[in-house]
């Protein structure tokens, strides 16, 4: 459905055929270090104009009783078909984004369900309106049948809805023999978003590690969020799910990741920000390049399966989690359209900037 959704928007905002859309200047001409992104807290930001409980969303909110619909899409998802990972955690909200010499993000607060109520509703609305009965081939896109998406209006107006960014990281292992990366098959029974899609690893929404007030400020850091996702998705460590103590970044694997980045054995770059055209979810696109020795040391206990899905194995003769970062493989993945839009967009941009990212 992403290809149908993207047709709703002007060609100039589309990132090729990845399924992503991005405003002018949001995708950088050259990658910059993730550390260069300036974050400004605005935790008292006004509520978003659209919250998903409006009459325009009624068609996608199932009936709770014979006469009454669920007030929010997330309530229906929780009670009718709850995924294994589905908690209404405190989250960071993108309220402003500027580019230029110093890219800047203004960050407020929201919740995970605030995002679900918008993103899953607009996706469900489009699927219901454009899929023919008994067919998986969508009809051409039409704004006329999308009242909730019309209510949201300009997707780049950050005041219209609660924008909870996902930080998507293409993780590249660099060695003398070449470069490779990891892909992740997300299990729809375990996750509420992007279930059944092939995605990057790690990828996770931008959230504090705890509901403690101190964590709201301490974890307002893109790198720390990426570190926690590495710990959870690559190594299978318990998730910092918000109801316990804040993450201790003086423990492993955080110490080793910090040390690797400080020593220059690992670089983390920001490529830009975009929206998934189908869900209007916010995607912060990043790339981590790690020297082979460091990668093999930090991720010696790389898991095959985690709480969100399974690592993809590449190759017929000797399947391996290492997917070659090479033109034939990259082109095939992009042409086959098997990747989640955020993964496709990040991979496409990383390949475009491969010489800078890999220091070639």
Key features?
360 residues, globular, eight-stranded mixed sheet, 11 helices, four-stranded antiparallel sheet, alpha+beta
Describe the structure.
With 360 residues, this protein is α+β, with helices and mostly antiparallel strands. It is 28% helix and 23% strand. The protein has helices spanning 2-6, 73-80, 112-130, 147-152, 213-218, 222-234, 254-262, 292-298, 327-336, 341-352, 354-358, and strands at 20-21, 27-33, 38-41, 90-98, 104-111, 165-175, 178-181, 183-186, 198-200, 203-205, 266-276, 282-291, 305-306, 309-311, 323-324. Strands 1, 2, 6, 7, 10, 11, 12 and 15 form an eight-stranded mixed beta sheet that branches. The longest helix is centred in the middle third of the chain and has 19 residues, at 112-130. The chain is globular. The model has no long low-confidence stretch (mean pLDDT 91).
Provide a compact summary of the structure.
This protein has 360 residues and is of the alpha+beta class. The protein has helices at residues 2-6, 73-80, 112-130, 147-152, 213-218, 222-234, 254-262, 292-298, 327-336, 341-352, 354-358, and strands at 20-21, 27-33, 38-41, 90-98, 104-111, 165-175, 178-181, 183-186, 198-200, 203-205, 266-276, 282-291, 305-306, 309-311, 323-324.
